[in-house]
Every structure is written in structure tokens, then in C-alpha cells.
Design brief:
The complex is a heterodimer. By secondary structure, chain A is an alpha/beta fold. Chain A contains twelve helices and eight strands. Chain B is α/β, with parallel strands linked by helices. Chain B has ten helices and nine strands. Classes of the chains: A alpha/beta, B alpha/beta. The complex binds zinc ion.
């Protein structure tokens, strides 16, 4: 392994975390027309770490659920730095059920260091909220396309990641544990995060190779316009393809997509 | 029967064990006979998967499934091969879960039992596959599933493939549930991370052992993230009961009785 390759995975982690990198809110703005944000989980509150609502993707009505950490300091605090709380996952599920009712495809944008780790989040069942999404999303009778745009942080990311088609932007990452967390367990030294990033195999290329994601959207030497246009076209074509399937076939294929991993 | 032979694999070590809570020295066989509950102070110690099966299933009824599935170092993770072989040695198990069919109080069921002595009961692809297969078998045979859960979460050494097992198992639980089959989840100390965020919280009926640690995020991580001091009893079974996330807390000595009763009420 050469020195250059060794740094590569962690460079991507840093790129995915870069505060200038666009998160879910940006892609809603760029891809979705007439977006209407819908708030609240109807249980406890509204989690600003997840923006959700309805709009058009090239004329097709869709439900969009997007993790967003915010761009200014005030917004970041309001959005809890993009770490969703249980009510965020429950809001997401509420809107997915609504999408199912109105036969709207669902698009999820994933980019978060992980589900919020707080006393209140535990009190309100962070684990239960994520589990419920994994369980229910497996049976939602409309197409679900999930796009990792930033850091896909463990279970908190997967809670929007049970889908028919998984997409990663080239420089996004998706991992079972943060490289820092991994390094501190493995070598009792979180500063070895760059090595940990390498061994965790968390880049878009790794995940494509593992058949965990079906598509990588190239970012290198491309403008934001080109990236957005590629992403939009790909999502549209996937929605068309999935819509052409019977509900039974769609759900069987979704089950199989995960069933084959590690089988 | 294979089941009986497997029980014999578990031999009680003839050493004394110190209770971490009261400091009493208890002979390992006395402790085992008392279901790993300290006879002096009543503290619960962790149970091995075979001990757990012996305590729960009707004698001679257990039939193991997929015992030949073994983990390998699928993402070339440093030190994982060594970790696997030392886990096998330490636990006497081939993986962190044992799956099979059995009868509990005369009720036929599918059962899985996790063991924290094997890499903290973490879930890699083999644990995920074994539990998924068990739910699929139970769905086909219309059997209830009883799951004894203990786990530190998804297994880091298998990277993203471990994380995806959370979705895979949850999907199998969903199909089992859609078939109107019962799933009883028994949460034991400790149940954390990606396991809490998947099949541990998906039981139709969720039972926990007293004082078992059950949570999503680790206590240390929460303290570091929030700078807050954790309240007394945080993430213990009693805390989850109070917040509405489990159905009941049951004493270890009454678990078989309670599970049998629940299974009996769901007989088809
Ligand atoms: Zn004691």
C-alpha cells in the first residue's frame, strides 16, 4: 500500500465532514421544485436535523427526507449539528407512510456523523426509533432511493438507508463506526483515525464493490451543476424503473438487496 | 440427540467466582446451579448461551441450526483472525449466537441466544445471517421466535457489512411479523448500539432482566458529547420500563414460566 493510497480514505472522511460540503438541504433546493416543508413527528416534537416535505422532481411528486446540519453557527446549533433525535426518525417514518398513502416515491439524503447521543435521546428511545424505521421501511410500498451525500454515520444513517437503490456521492463515506472511534478501540489512539479509515473500507468505491450501493455519482473535476444534474437524472431513471415494478416485486427486491449481504 | 450432546459440551469450571457486587466467593458450580445469580446478594451475572438454553428449553428438545456457519476476515481487518480464534477459545462457541428450534414449556418455538463472551456478542455477517435464517425458518414453519439478546452492537471488524445486518435482520423480523407470528425479545445485560437499534426493540413482547444495561449510545460517549452527568439508573431495565420501551422486567428464575405462558397464549 503506498503512502498516497493510505491517506485517501481519511481524506474522504474529512471531505465528507467539511463544513463547506453541501448537505441534504442544498440538494432539496437544487433538485426539488415547489418544495413544501412538513414538520413534526406528531408524538413529541420537530427535529431540525431532518428536513422533510413534498415537492416535484422534474414534475413527479415526491417525498423528500434530508439530514441537514446547517451552514451558519446559529443554524448548526438549531439543527444539532445534523445529529437526528428520535423525533427526527419518527417524523421521517410518518412522512414515509404518508408517501405510501399517496403513492409518492421517497428520496432520502443521508449526511450525519450519527444519531444524537444524549440523555434525552435515550429517554425517548433512540434505539427504538431507528429499529422501527429499519422494520417499517422494508415494507413501504413505494420506491425509496437513498443518497449518501456526506458522512454516513452508522445506525443513525441506516435509519434512512433501507431503500431500493442506494447512491453515494464519490467523496461521501458510510461506516459502521467513525474512524476515530475505531482507532481508539483498536489502537487506544484516536489520532490514528487515518489508518482506521483505511481498514474500515468506508469509501464509495468500497461500498460499490461490496454491492452495498448501486451507484456512485462522480465529483472529481466536476461542477456542482454537473453533479446535481447527474444525480437528478439518475434518481429519475431509478424512480421510473421501480415504479414499473409490481409492489410485490419491489418489496421482494428490496428484501433481497439486504438479504444477500453477508449471506 | 444433537441438542443433548451440545449441553454436555458445556462443562462447569471448578473454580471459585467472586461476586463483583458483594465480593462473596462462590463456587462456579453453585453459581451455575443458581442460574448465575449471587446467592449472597442476588446480583445477576452474565450467562453463557448454553447455560441459558439449559435454563429455558425443555430438556432434550433443542435442535441446533446453522452451527457450521463460521466468520472469516471478509474485509481483511487487522487482527480479526486472532480475535476470532481467541473468542472461540474463551467462549467455547463458534460464534456469538446459537440458533435452533426447541420447546419451552411444551410450546414449540424457534430460539436464538446470544453470548457476550464471544466478542461482546457483537453482530457480524454470520450472527446476522444466523438470526435472519432463524426468522425465515420460523416464518415458513409458523413458529414463534424467542430471542435472548446480549450484544455490544455491530461488529466493527466487518465494517459496513456488519451495519447492513441490522437492516437484514429487521427485514426478516418484518416478514415473520407480517405472517402474524410472535416474537418475544428478552433483553439481558448488556444490550447496546446497533442491536438496540434493530431487533432488540422489535419484539411484540419485550422482556428485560432486572438492572440489565440497555441503550443505544454508550454512557461514556453521552457524557463526552453532552458534558452532563448521567442520572442514577440511566439505561438500566427499570429506566426503559419507566420510559415505556419494554413490556416488563422479569426475574431470571421466573423467565421460563413467563415465556411459556406467553407462548401458550399465542398457540395456533
Ligand atoms: Zn453478591
Amino acid at each position: 500500500m503506498s503512502g498516497n493510497e493510505k491517506l485517501k480514505a481519511y481524506d474522504k472522511v474529512l471531505a465528507a465532514r467539511n463544513t463547506a460540503r453541501h448537505m441534504g438541504g442544498y440538494y432539496i433546493e437544487r433538485l426539488i421544485d415547489d418544495f413544501i416543508e412538513l414538520h413534526g413527528d406528531r408524538r413529541f416534537g420537530d427535529d431540525a436535523a431532518i428536513i422533510s416535505g413534498i415537492g416535484y422532481l422534474n414534475g413527479v411528486p415526491v417525498t423528500v427526507i434530508a439530514m441537514e446540519r446547517g451552514t451558519t453557527v446559529e443554524e448548526r446549533i438549531k439543527r444539532n449539528f445534523g445529529c437526528p433525535s428520535p423525533e427526527g426518525y419518527r417524523k421521517a417514518l410518518r412522512l414515509m407512510k404518508e408517501a405510501e398513502k399517496f403513492s409518492r416515491p421517497i428520496i432520502c439524503f443521508i449526511g450525519s456523523s450519527g444519531a444524537y447521543c444524549g440523555i434525552d435521546a435515550e429517554e425517548r428511545g433512540q434505539g427504538e426509533a431507528i429499529a422501527e424505521n429499519l422494520f417499517e421501511m422494508m415494507g413501504i410500498k413505494v420506491p425509496i432511493i437513498s443518497v449518501v451525500v456526506g458522512e454516513g454515520g452508522s445506525g443513525g444513517a441506516l435509519a434512512l438507508g433501507v431503500c431500493d437503490t442506494a447512491v453515494m456521492l464519490e467523496n461521501s463515506v458510510y461506516s459502521v463506526i467513525s474512524p476515530e472511534g475505531c482507532a481508539s478501540i483498536l489502537w487506544k489512539d484516536s489520532s490514528k483515525a487515518d489508518e482506521a479509515a483505511e481498514v474500515l473500507k468506508l469509501t464509495s468505491e468500497d461500498l460499490y464493490k461490496f454491492e452495498v450501493v448501486e451507484k456512485i455519482i462522480d465529483e472529481t473535476d466536476r461542477t456542482q451543476d454537473e453533479i446535481c444534474s447527474d444525480l437528478k437524472n439518475f434518481i429519475l431513471s431509478e424512480i421510473e424503473a421501480k415504479k414499473a415494478m409490481s409492489v410485490e416485486d419491489l418489496l421482494a427486491a428490496r428484501y433481497e438487496k439486504f438479504r444477500k449481504i453477508g449471506a | 440427540m444433537k441438542g443433548i450432546l451440545n449441553f454436555m459440551k458445556f462443562s462447569k469450571p471448578q473454580t471459585a467466582v467472586e461476586c463483583k457486587k458483594c465480593g462473596a466467593e462462590i463456587s462456579a458450580s453453585d453459581l451455575s446451579d443458581n442460574l448465575m445469580i449471587c446467592p449472597e446478594c442476588g446480583a445477576y451475572m452474565r450467562m453463557g448461551a448454553w447455560e441459558r438454553l439449559k435454563m429455558i428449553v425443555d430438556e432434550g428438545s433443542f435442535c441446533e441450526l446453522d452451527e457450521d456457519l463460521k466468520s472469516s476476515n471478509i474485509i481483511d481487518f487487522p487482527g480479526y483472525d486472532e480475535k476470532l480464534s481467541s473468542a472461540k477459545k474463551a467462549s467455547g462457541l463458534s460464534e456469538a449466537v446459537i440458533c435452533g428450534t426447541a420447546e419451552v414449556g411444551g410450546n414449540k418455538c424457534a430460539i436464538f441466544v446470544m453470548d457476550s463472551a464471544f466478542m461482546m456478542g457483537s453482530m457480524g455477517t454470520v450472527v446476522g445471517e444466523k438470526i435472519t435464517r432463524l426468522f425465515e425458518t420460523a416464518t415458513t414453519k409458523k413458529l414463534p421466535v424467542v430471542g435472548f439478546i446480549t450484544s455490544g452492537g455491530a461488529r466493527m471488524q466487518e465494517g459496513i457489512l456488519s451495519l447492513m445486518q441490522m437492516a437484514k435482520v429487521s427485514g426478516a423480523v418484518k416478514r415473520h411479523s407480517d405472517g402474524k407470528n410472535l416474537y418475544v425479545a428478552v433483553l439481558t445485560d448488556p444490550t447496546t448500539g446497533g442491536i438496540t437499534a434493530s431487533f432488540a426493540m422489535l419484539g411484540d413482547i419485550i422482556i428485560a432482566e432486572p438492572k440489565a444495561l440497555i441503550g443505544f449510545a454508550g454512557a461514556r460517549v453521552i457524557e463526552q458529547t453532552t458534558g452532563e452527568k448521567l442520572p442514577e439508573g440511566f439505561q438500566r431495565a427499570e429506566f426503559l420500563l419507566e420510559h415505556g420501551f419494554i413490556d416488563m422486567i422479569e426475574d431470571r428464575k421466573r423467565l421460563k414460566y413467563t415465556i411459556s405462558k406467553v407462548l401458550g397464549m399465542h398457540r395456533k
